[in-house]
Structure formats: C-alpha cells, structure tokens
Amino acid sequence: MSSSLKITDVRTIVTCPGRNFVLLKIVTESGLYGVGDGTLNGRELAVAETLREYITPLLIGRDADQIEDIWQSLFRGTYWRGGPVLNTALAAVDVALWDLKGRRAGLPVYSLLGGRTRTGALCYAHAAGETIEETTDRATVLMERGFRVVRVQTAIPGTSGTYGTAAGSVQPEDGPLVEQFEPAPYLRTIPRLFDHLRAQLGEEVELCHDVHERLTPIQAARLAKELEPHHLFFLEDPLRPEHPESFRLIRQHSTTPLAMGELFTSRWDCLPLLTEQLIDFIRCDLVHTGGITEGRKIAAIAESFQVQTAWHGPPDISPIGHAANVHLDLATANFGVQEWVEHPPEVADVIHGGPTYHDGYLNVSDAPGLGCEIDEQAAKKYPYIRGWLPVTRRADGSVHDW
Ligand code: KDG
Ligand code: MG
After folding, report:
1. 209 in the same domain as 231
2. pTM of the entire structure?
3. Sign of the CA dihedral running 181, 183, 185, 191
4. For 95-104, what is each residue's pLDDT tens digit?
5. Centre of ligand 1 from the C-alpha of residue 374, in Å
6. Whose CA is nearest to atom 7 of ligand 1?
C-alpha cells in the first residue's frame, strides 16, 4: 500500500444546521481525504456511535483504495450485518472512500463509475397543500421553475397531519407528533386530487404520489387502478416493505407504474420486486443501503429487468448524500428520475458544494470526487438536536404505518 492511502483518521461529525446530519471524514497518512454521509433520520446517534465505536477501529491502517474489500469486510466480515443503522454507517464509509478515490484520481466520481450517460439527471420536487387547490398552485409554481416531474400530496379531510403535507414534516424535539390516517377518506381524496390536477395542469407534466406504505394490497390495487387514466409517472411505496410478493396483487389490477424502496437496506430486499418485474422504479436510499457500491449493484440488477432507478432524495440526507445520488444517476444507463429537495440555507455554512438545479435537471461539477467539503468549525456552531419522526394512529387509536 502506498503510504498516501493508509487510513490514519476517521472523524464522525454530528451537526444540526437546520436538520441533523451525521457526516464522515476519512483521512489518509498523506492528508488525502474523502467525505461521506451517514444520516439516518431520527436515529442519528445510533449511526454515529456505530461509526465511532465499531467501524473506525477497523478502518485505521487500512488501504483506502480497497473500497470493495472494505465494504465486504464491514458487511459480511463483522458477522452482524444489514438493517438501517449498520448499512447507513457502511454507506458513510463507502461514499467517503469513493470521494477519496476521485480526489486521488483528479476525476469526478461519475467518471470513475463509467462516465456520463446523460447531460443531467431529470429530477422532481414536492408540491403539497392543505387543499387540492393549494397542491395544484404549488405544482404550478414548480412547473414555472422548469420541473417536468412533480410529486403531489394533499391533506386528507377528516384526518390530521397527512404524510408529506407541510404540517406533517415537523420534527418536534419533545416527542413524536401523532398523526391520524384512515384509508377510506384517503382513497376517496387522491383520485379527486389527480382529476383536478389533470384538468388544471394538462397531460404533459409528469406526476408522482407517495403513499408512504400506508395501504393494504387490495386498497393499493384499487388506488392504482383508479389513477390509471391520469398516467402517473409513478405511485410510490404503496405497501409496507416486509412482504414484496404483495405487489403481485397490484400488478394484476393496474398498469400504473410503481416505485418502491426507501425502507430497503440491501440488494436482497429489492430482488423479488426486480426479478418478477413487480415495480418500474427502484428507489432505495443510497445512504441507507451501503452507499454507491451497493447502489450500482442494485442498478445493474434492475437494468436486467428494465426497472429504472429513482434514488430517495429527501431533506434528511445531506448534500453529500444527494451528490452521491447524482454522480450515480449520471453514470447509470437505467436511471429514471431523481428526487430533489432544497435544504435550509444554514446547511451551506457546513457543507459546501452538492448538486445544482437548472431547468428540470440536476448536475454536479467536474471537481475531483463528489465535489463537497465539510467545514468542521462551522459544524460545531450547530449542535445536535434530538428530533422525532411522527407516529400515525387510526381513528380508534391503533398504530398505523407513518
Ligand atoms: O425519514 C423519512 C423520510 O426520508 C421520508 O418520509 C421521505 O418518503 C419520503 C420521500 O419520499 O422523500
Ligand atoms: Mg417516500
């Protein structure tokens, strides 16, 4: 191993510039370094402790060039493997090592992954409202900004804190917000939302909707069937992740394109949906699925089954995670679309760089690596604040999927 590649320092940085982020910096003997993202919304410190206590000692002294071997040794070699906490920690290491390799080579990561297959990554943003009209107005604003694809969510009358609407994204410090969900009003409202959107916005704009795993298979089949005339770009996460075979039922009833994956943490979670062509878009979160190394393998399997990628891109991963998404998007033949959310302005104090938006597409610079830097001094100005994801209950008080 060249001494320049011997890992001598691994720093886990927990910071809250408007949102909590867990960031990683891997440094080699020569001072060459790479940065990664290990943010797991609401479980940030579990990942930070895993990185500090269990992963850092295994990295010190290793050859930073050996991304695949380090990945295998942290996943299989440590016996306990998988799940969101361990695979988010693994992703932080993996993304930092790809960044480091790019800096060493003087090449952007997309170039190391095979080079550009496209000039930019088609992206979508979120339009959400308390009413169908408000959602439509917000979608119009996004279209005026150049977005060709828009995700639409609306509050459901008679329930509270619907997923994806403005109030639903609050993360209080003192305990989870309790939201309420009932399938009947939801299943009545969403087709009305799309009737209105198509009447107001026309046929050309591509529309997505996120069910957030809240329906049973037959309910999801009904929704997908009723939305068919509106030609969605995709219907996202209709079902819980535990029983992928349930997607067969939706497929039997509808040609509405389906997307799934943000709760998956490995390629094996994705396999049944890909090999049976039960979905059209695989949308794992690279930051929760072992990073770029695992993401490119998932993309390669998906390519064989004509499934496209749509990596999860929420505000709760940092610009470093978003940069990893876009580098992989640019190099992936079967890329479909990239979810994109703008961060609060303080984030740019701590993380410089990241993807840029122009006229419906995302791009990254040609800077070596991912094109991101962490300002560790600035990160200290924003200490961690515990935040909770909401909890959802039915009208009778029983727990439901958020
Ligand atoms: O932490 C959970 C969020 O990342 C998730 O709720 C966002 O569903 C989401 C999406 O599609 O961005
Ligand atoms: Mg989602």
Report:
1. yes
2. 0.97
3. positive
4. 999 999 999 9
5. 24
6. 314
